[in-house]
Amino acid sequence: MASTSRRSTSGSYCSGNVTGERFCECGLRAPLQVSNSMANSGRKYYACPARRCGWFRWAGLSIQYSDIGDDRSCQLNSNLKTCERVKNLHTDVVYLKLLAFLQLLVSIVCVVLVILLLCKL
């Protein structure tokens, strides 16, 4: 029995698929795998088993447990840290846009004042 199955509709769940299997763009069953990279260690993902089409999907939120294995000591994976960083960057961008607007406003006021002073001379 082959470990991969063919499928005509690519890249999504089969309708009525109770097991939650995923299929790549090649039509192959994409097995659930675990990342061993530094940035995503222990995070689960699906990928094309033949590596032909480049299809890839994260399996969802993962939680990493410490060596103790205690639920209270779990830490969220780096995907939440990344999301938090994106939110912080968005806040910084909004703040910088506000500062740029205020700088423009002050520059306009200064130009108007200089024009008014020159007109009085």
TrEMBL record:
Residue ranges of every copy of the GRF-type domain listed in the record: 24-62
Keyword Iron (UniProt): no
Keywords for the protein's UniProt record, in alphabetical order: Membrane, Metal-binding, Transmembrane, Transmembrane helix, Zinc, Zinc-finger
Pfam families for the chain: Zn_ribbon_GRF (PF06839)
Sample GO molecular function, one term: zinc ion binding
PROSITE patterns, per database record: ZF_GRF
Protein name according to UniProt: GRF-type domain-containing protein
